[in-house]
């Protein structure tokens, strides 16, 4: 065999060895095992060496060797394609996992936000601290906001519905106080007295209690119930002598005599 042919054979065999050294161990999905590849390449190299030593120019041997090397190269290319596909699949899997984790995080945050909407809140109203549901806080503040605009008639049903819907709420004494004031402003004196008295009966130590007692007397004065107003003012002075309402009660008593 000529030196040119042997040199070409040696180069092809060396190329196969180099390529397999880089690629065959890297893929778990190889078309044949590493040991089989090494044995096949070793056998081909032995054949090349034998041809070189004997100097034979067998066309059949050369063709078979070329076909074997071509098969190996074809399998190597197939491994490359398969490895590229696997790499692409791994990238897609990583992306899918990342997207799933992101969605799970968003879902968890959304759940936390929704749960917080129902968790009791610590509130402080008229000097009293208590736990209230978010819905209670929202409805009370909505009714009070309407009252503060001067729309007293519109605030009456809002406070009335609040007291009916949340009878055990810590807001109830304050709600009754503002409801009574709204009814006083709309000249519904009897209902105003009822709400002020309910406040005094349920929470006599409430910060608004002295004002509620004074408001009862004011309603009685409007109703021409002078005796009742005098009695209410005297009781106010006894129950809340240091309050600001007591000073106003003294002034009203002096005018009723």
TrEMBL record:
State the function annotated in the UniProt record.
Mediates coordination of peptidoglycan synthesis and outer membrane constriction during cell division.
The domain of life for this entry's organism is: Bacteria
Q: Which UniProt keywords apply?
A: Cell cycle, Cell division, Coiled coil, Periplasm, Signal, TPR repeat
What are the boundaries of the signal sequence? Answer: 1-29
Record-given protein name = Cell division coordinator CpoB
The principal location of this protein is periplasm
Where in or outside the cell it occurs: the entry states:
Periplasm
**Domain (YbgF trimerisation) ranges:** 66-120
The record's section on Pfam families has: TolA_bind_tri (PF16331), TPR_19 (PF14559)
The regions listed as transmembrane in this protein's record are none
Xref: InterPro entries: CpoB, CpoB_C, TPR-like_helical_dom_sf, TPR_rpt, YbgF_tri
- Report the sequence similarity comment from the record: Belongs to the CpoB family.
Q: Which residues form a coiled coil?
A: 34-103
Question: HAMAP family under this entry?
Answer: CpoB
Q: Where are the TPR repeats?
A: 173-206
């Amino acid at each position: 065999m000529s030196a040119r042919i042997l040199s070409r054979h040696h180069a092809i065999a060396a190329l196969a060895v180099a390529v397999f050294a880089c690629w065959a161990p890297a893929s778990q999905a190889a078309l044949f095992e590493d040991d089989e590849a090494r044995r096949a390449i070793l056998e081909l190299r032995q054949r090349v060496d034998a041809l070189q030593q004997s100097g034979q120019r067998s066309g059949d041997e050369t063709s078979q060797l070329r076909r074997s090397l071509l098969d190996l190269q074809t399998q190597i290319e197939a491994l490359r394609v398969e490895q590229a596909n696997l790499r692409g699949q791994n990238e897609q899997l990583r992306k899918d996992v990342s997207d799933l984790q992101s969605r799970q995080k968003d879902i968890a945050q959304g759940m936390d936000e929704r749960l917080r909407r129902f968790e009791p809140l610590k509130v402080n109203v008229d000097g009293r601290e208590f736990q209230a549901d978010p819905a209670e806080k929202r409805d009370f503040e909505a009714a009070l906001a309407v009252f503060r605009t001067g729309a007293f008639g519109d605030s009456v049903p809002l406070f009335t519905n609040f007291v009916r819907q949340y009878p055990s709420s810590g807001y109830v004494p304050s709600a009754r106080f503002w409801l009574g004031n709204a009814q006083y402003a709309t000249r519904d004196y009897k209902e105003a007295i009822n709400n002020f008295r309910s406040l005094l009966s349920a929470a006599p130590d409430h910060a608004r209690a002295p004002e509620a007692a004074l408001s009862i007397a004011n309603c009685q004065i409007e109703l021409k119930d002078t005796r009742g107003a005098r009695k209410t003012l005297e009781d106010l002075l006894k129950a809340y002598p240091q309050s600001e309402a007591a000073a106003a009660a003294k002034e009203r008593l002096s005018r009723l005599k």
